[in-house]
């Protein structure tokens, strides 16, 4: 088994903007070790969200190669990509992306339902994930009964309930105050200590420094 869970080699991604073409990722290459906590840092429009979409198997590059845990992602079909997203990767977003009519428990349970996990096993898995983020006592609350920080904790619990080895976090503290941001980063550091690989997208240098490695992105190019 390779030390590197993510290997990106000379990846390019271009979007059409009317008559013009915009190269959002320009011959990007990077290797990320198993168990690393890496921050991808850059301003709005630098290409960082596109980069995360590629490594999260939400989008495919126009050229170059992406190996995830040794598998060439470019050779996989839609069903195989969907299985990777469901089992291998947990996603955390700036706006939490919780379903407003579902309780914290039900929001966290959704990925397990998609995986076909039987109800008898789901309950303990959901409670275990909520316990890790300190929200087991709020399991019956719907999102508008929770603070922003609590909603992000629910979102993290949802991301880890399937026990993925990789967590991708897109501006996970962008909608939070500094105190709550620190609490969320502490949770992410704890999850990293359990052995999970974390790739965090951020525009904030201070937030990025909470990771063990920072990679800057500017005009679609990566700089260490």
From TrEMBL:
Tell me which domain of life the UniProt entry assigns to the organism this sequence originates from: Bacteria
Give the keywords, sorted.
ATP-binding, Nucleotide-binding, Transport
The answer to whether the entry has keyword Nucleotide-binding is yes
Q: Name one GO cellular component term.
A: membrane protein complex
Task: Give the record's family classification.
Answer: Belongs to the ABC transporter superfamily.
Recorded hits in PANTHER family, A to Z, give: CELL DIVISION ATP-BINDING PROTEIN FTSE, LIPOPROTEIN-RELEASING SYSTEM ATP-BINDING PROTEIN LOLD
Q: What is this protein called?
A: Putative ABC transport system ATP-binding protein
Q: Organism source for this protein?
A: Asaccharospora irregularis DSM 2635
